[in-house]
Amino acid sequence: MQKKISKEIVNMLEGYETISGKAGYAVFIHDTRGNIFEVNKRAEKLTGYPRKELLNMNVMQLHTKKELNTSIRKLRLIEETKREVEFGSQMQKKNGKAINVKITGDKFKFKNITFVIGMVREIAPHAKLWKAKKRRSTTKPNSDKFSKQVKNMNKEGIGSLHLLIEIAEARDPYTMKHSVKVKKYVELLARRVEFSEKNIESLKLASMLHDIGKIGIDQDVLTKPGALTKAEYSKVKKHPLLSTKMIRRIPVVDKQISKIVKYHHENYGGGGYPTGLRGTKIPLGARILAIADTYDALRSNRAYRKAYSYPEAVGIMKSERGKRFDPKLVDIFLDCLQSEAKK
Ligand SMILES: [Fe+2]
Question: What is the model's pTM?
Answer without folding.
Answer: 0.58
